[in-house]
Each structure stands twice: as C-alpha cells, then as structure tokens.
C-alpha cells in the first residue's frame, strides 16, 4: 500500500485557504476535514465554547483515514506551534507523509475585502470581521513545505500553483548509476 499523505493547511481567514484545500480534495480524492465544521458541530451539539476540542477530534478522524491508506487534507488556521506539532505527530504515528501548506494574502486591502465579503458556508458559524482577523493570534511559519500567496491571483492560478508544487514534492528523485 502506498504511504498516505497528510496535507495540513494553515493561514488566516480570508486568504483562500479553504477554497484551495477543497480544490485539492477534489483534484486528489483526499478526505477533507475542515476544523470550522467540526468546531461548529461541537458548539451546536454540546452548547459550549469550543477551543482545542475541534483540533483533537480532527486529529482522530485524520488518523482513522490515514490508517486506511487515504490521503487527508486538514483545513484550519493552525495558528500556533502546538497545533503544528500535533498535526506532525498525527502523520508520524500513522506512517504518513506530511506536507504543510501556508496560505497568505500579502495585499492587506485585498485580504480585507475578502474577509468582509465572505459568504457563510458552515451553518451557524459566524465569520470573523476584519478587526478580529487582524487581532487573531497567528504565528507565521519559520519553515513550511509550501507557501502560497494568493494576492493578485485568481483562485485557479493559485490552485494550479499549489498542484504544480505538490507534484514536484511528490515526484521521486531517481539517480542513474
């Protein structure tokens, strides 16, 4: 059985992260896990504030699928070292490759426009406003496998860029000799 891959998306709301993650899922047939959906379901069912529970539940769902040999896409802000380490542990414990993908939008005005014009996709989930996005704790990666800046690009161009980089990363290097 081929070793599965865990694709972990990171980035602030409104960067295009979820759109790219969903496109990658469609393109590759990978299992798609969106932390926003998991967390909102927990809020709806348990009527309580949710913090790390959504991530922890998602780690288990990802692990179940990786054990089956399925590729998994984890779509979340993944804002701090702790969650990044935990996703790494999910990959290690399930003998999966790990590809970390950070999505950003370097044009502040464009990013703000995206945040302010987003449509709700997850029932019951209120999107953060621009001030909340700016104030959100998010530590940029020091070293990431793939960094995609979606500023001034169509989603199609950003998606193609991502797919091209993934193909290069996943292509085995052969030596002659």
Automatic annotation (TrEMBL):
Pfam families registered for this protein in UniProt: AAA_33 (PF13671)
GO molecular function: kinase activity
Keywords: Kinase, Transferase
Keyword Kinase part of the UniProt annotation: yes
Kinase listed as a keyword: yes
Domain of life according to the entry: Bacteria
InterPro entries, per the entry: P-loop_NTPase
Protein name: Putative kinase
Native organism taxonomy: Bacteria, Pseudomonadati, Pseudomonadota, Gammaproteobacteria, Oceanospirillales
